[in-house]
């Protein structure tokens, strides 16, 4: 592609900016997460004789070295928002297997090279991916579309009923430069 391909077309009455490349010709995302320690793997469902099989997580993918301590699911009504939350020691692995969600992240770790960065990813049954979120990264989820979304979380440490590792902020907090609502 030459530099002229991104020049403003002659004779147009309005100006704009050209789209930047976001996927390869094989439709693989080329934008790595901009928050240090966050990884994502887009997953390709495999067509079978009676539907599709979608792997959710495999150790050999090398996304992170932590064990899986608990797996739980969360259903979200259309338009539902979780609010912002973070963990001191727990690593989240989020996978939307029904419907569609936008996962929004904010790096609140002062020592991180990506401190203050906001990042978003839309994923769901039609574009499966797993997002690995390290401790200290604030995250919120918004259900998109007209159907219920089903979100799986494969945490490295099981929920401690007597001492929850959850820190919460409202979805419209002034402490994070993005409003979930």
Automatic annotation (TrEMBL):
One Gene Ontology cellular component: cytosol
Pfam families for the chain: dTDP_sugar_isom
GO molecular function: dTDP-4-dehydrorhamnose 3,5-epimerase activity
Catalysed transformations (reactions): dTDP-4-dehydro-6-deoxy-alpha-D-glucose = dTDP-4-dehydro-beta-L-rhamnose
Coiled coil region boundaries: none
Family matches, as InterPro entries: RmlC-like, RmlC-like_jellyroll, RmlC_Cupin_sf
Residues carrying the site annotation Participates in a stacking interaction with the thymidine ring of dTDP-4-oxo-6-deoxyglucose: 159
GO biological process, one term: polysaccharide biosynthetic process
SUPFAM superfamilies with a match to the protein in the record: RmlC-like cupins
Membrane-spanning intervals of the chain: none
EC number: 5.1.3.13
Role played: Catalyzes the epimerization of the C3' and C5'positions of dTDP-6-deoxy-D-xylo-4-hexulose, forming dTDP-6-deoxy-L-lyxo-4-hexulose.
Protein name stated in the entry: dTDP-4-dehydrorhamnose 3,5-epimerase
Organism whose genome encodes this protein: Mesorhizobium australicum (strain HAMBI 3006 / LMG 24608 / WSM2073)
